[in-house]
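Lecture 7 notes: from sequence to structure.

We start with a single chain of 285 residues. Read the sequence below before looking at the structure.
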Amino acid sequence: MERARISGVLVAFLFAAWALPAFAEETPPSPEGSPAVEPASPAPASAAEPAAPTSSPPDDSPAPPVVTRDVRSEVPNLAYAYTAHGATAKSLGAMAYGLGVGAAGQKGILGGGVTVWGAPIDRLTLVGDAQRNVFGNFAPSFAAVVRLLGKADEGWSLGALGKFKVEGFARPGGLGTRPENPDEIESELEAGLLLSYGRDGYHFDLNAISGFGMGDDGEIDGEGRLRLGYDVARALRVGVDGQARVRVNGPQYLPNGKTWDFAGGPQLISGRRASSARSPAGPRR
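Now the structure, written as tokens:
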């Protein structure tokens, strides 16, 4: 815009410098004795006069920033540990998974489920999950991850977790069914703090979670979840993910029949980086 204005002023100045000497040379000499007629000087340009129409000004607004997201970091929960940063605002994702559990003195279990997540606004990620859990029962859950500090893959981030889950639609004789109340639907509320780190290919997630049973038994669990990962290639991340749990209050109804248990295993995550241009808020001129 400024270049166009300077050019217009320069062209007008050159035209005036060429036209005024030519006009003075073409003025006929006045006869002797008669006063010389001064050539009329051009009227000075008024600042109020509108400028001559020019072509539309160039768009000098800044170009929209390019946002690069790692799809592997967009998943808020793969198996056990949650990420503290959650997903990117206005994003939506889903995944299907399988699980297997085997231990001494415990019946082996094969299961799986589907997880759907979305971030309607910045800092808030909603997660819905439906699975066949380690008790062998259908266990839906709903969680909310709130990012308090930091961002994904930019160092440390801190978040909070709130979760409601159903322990299982119990059936008589089913694995994990409470003997005293075989037809009761057990539910649990969980709350915890989430800590994550991601930079230079290294990834770390640590969760401290407390669970409170909604039944009459007054069950309280304490859980620690940990995930470690490293990007061995642009599209491949390897790591481990697990949890340790202890029954703080209530009967011993953990899958192994004890007051504590542990589960974990290796992880292979394949994904890629996606880039998108995000327009700044507000109208562009």
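Residues 1-27, 170-179, 275-285 have pLDDT under 50 and may be disordered. Keep this in mind for problem set 3.
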